[in-house]
Amino acid sequence: MEKAINKLVFSTVQTPDPGSAPRDGKFTRGEIEKGLKVFENGGGAKLFTHLNSCVHCGLCAESCIYYKTMGDDRYTPARKVDLVASVYRRYHTFAGKYMPLLVNARDLNEDTANEMVDLLFGACTMCGRCTMHCSIGVDIAYLVKTGRTMLSEMGMVPASLQSTVKAAVETGNNMGIPTPEFVDTLKWMEDELTDELNTKEALIPVDEKGKNVLYTLNPREPKFFPLSISAMAKIFYAAGESWTLSSNMYDITNYAYFSGNNEEARLIAKRMWDEMEALRCSTLVLAECGHGSRALRWESPNYLKKTFPFKVKTSVEIIADYLHDGKIKLDQEKFKEAVTLHDPCNLVRSGGICMEQRYILNEFIEDFREMTPHGIDNYCCGGGGRQLAMSEYNERRMKTAEVKAEQIRKTGAKVVVSPCHNCVDQLTQINFSFKLNVQIKTLAELVADAIIL
Amino acid sequence: MATLEIEGKAFEVDGDGFLTKPEMWNEDVAALFARFDGIAEMNEKHWAVVKLIRRTWEEKAMAPMVRVLCQETGLKLREIYELFPLGPARGACRVAGLPKPDGCV
User: Fold this and answer.
1) CB-CB neighbors (< 8 A) of B57 in chain A
2) Maximum Cα–Cα distance for chain A, whole Å?
3) By the number of CB atoms within 10 A of the CB, which of A209, A212, A294, B89 ranks highest?
């Protein structure tokens, strides 16, 4: 008998979920106006400059993992920019108003919006690599974000992404974890840690006021992957840090940043600011989460139109500080196997936190190997921009992952470390799908394993 | 939307391979989904995890915390990650026929 082949087959026809993209029915006049309003409320001079500047040189094409792996011109970043710019031209330029066909100006209608959903949500991780490669410095990722905001205003966010945002807005964390279950998990991790270290001092404090550090988490840690919580607790213990977690607001993620809904993004960020105030801590330390760090540290002052009344640091920076100040010591004999590093786009390319993780790894990893390219020119893992959540585009996501799989394979490393839980999940799937046979770890997990107490 | 074809049988799934109609699930489906993930034969430990996830989801409409999985099955965390190479969410929850959990999984 012929052996059946096991496979996942994607249907070419998208089945629309009610109330979400793609769209079958007609837009109302009001919906279109809400979408167009983004040009007026959006970014003023910055937005208009970037929308009008692309010279179609095509240098961005090769910088994009979608174009690189699929070779389809539609995926060229310039085409994504032009989609948003063509709508702008239609309503805001003389030629676009009166001779739209001549200048490729497009109505904001169902066809345009569906194409925008497909390309801006479904074929871009907003990694910003094209922005770095643009010959004239167009902020392409920002224009994609603007397009996403328009779609969000028109109720066109893909259902799988919106449900994650909805969970965060309604329950306070993006997985809808009930507080007692969260607290029980912390207690459990604390018991495991005190057993492992054989000391009653290595605690995981909850809701304590006036501590130096308020630490945050990605909800996937308490729900499914809590080893990174005890790893960070071990590092805090070793450094003699005064710290706490909050049971009320601990979720560092902010997926409204990716859905483009600025009001929801503001609401989520404000909760963290409020929690800092309530617990009167002095430094907010962000979990290993690329986009969450970006949304809180670099975007939230804009959302709230205020400067930070407290200090904000990523966990990468605080671990580097502890090492630099001699507060923790790492065993240089612990890891003999080759280790490589995946740079999360939001932390590295957007945030500029690039050398700290290398400083840490060089302190204790004997055989550290860089990917090519790396640092601010690194390729996205393919899971960014909330691709990881959008099942609708899974086939493309795993296709773009070929780039990262190849990069990892070429290093010959046995361990891949990345300071971002979203990247870690995508890398775990890459490891499985491309049979790389490596271990995937967060930075805190690697550091905690080597710490000398 | 997608179709998962395993050993000549076809299942309607989302783009991540999670059952579109969780009520279609039974133990044969679980065994097939596990084989798709490279788990040739589900052992007692696999079943303990999968059945607990399924029971919790039927009662509370959500997957259990991994703490509950460990404490009720007596398995260590690292064992659970070894049993399901794609992890508790993309691995075990999918084999248990749940819709894909929200969040970074």
Assistant:
1) none
2) 77
3) B89
Contacts of A257 in chain B (CB under 8 A): none
User: Domain holding A77: CATH number?
Assistant: 1.10.1060
CB pairs under 8 A between A and B: 119
Question: Looking at A295, A324, A353, which one is the last position of a domain?
Answer: A324
Closest CA to A338 of A422, A439, A449: A439
**CATH number corresponding to B2-95:** 1.10.10.370
Work out the average pLDDT over A351-358.
98
Q: pLDDT tens across A81-133, in order?
A: 999 999 999 999 999 999 999 999 999 999 999 999 999 999 999 999 999 99
- pLDDT tens, residue by residue, A98-112: 999 999 999 999 999
Q: What does the pLDDT look like over A245-295, one tens digit per residue? A: 999 999 999 999 999 999 999 999 999 999 999 999 999 999 999 999 999
A positions 340-399 inside 8 Å of B (CB): 388-395
Compare all CA atoms of chain B with the CA of A217 and give the residue at the minimum distance: B104
Is there a single domain that holds both residue A371 and residue A413? yes
Residue A230 sits at the chain B interface (C-beta within 8 Å): no
Task: Quote the pLDDT of residue A138.
Answer: 97
Residue A22 located in a structural domain: no
Chain centroid to Cα A142, Å, comes to: 14
The answer, yes or no, to whether residue A13 has pLDDT greater than 90, is no
Tell me if chain B has a CB within 8 Å of the CB of A212. Answer: no
A316 and A380 inside one domain: no
B70 assigned to active site: no
| A11 to B66: CB separation less than 8 angstroms, yes or no | no
Contact across the interface for A226 and B67, Cβ inside 8 Å: yes
Mean of pLDDT values over B39-61: 97
- Between strands A311-314 and A339-341, the pairing is unpaired
Q: Are A174 and A217 in contact (CB under 8 A)?
A: no
Structural domain boundaries in chain B: 2-95
**Which SS3 state, helix, strand or coil, does residue A327 take?**
coil
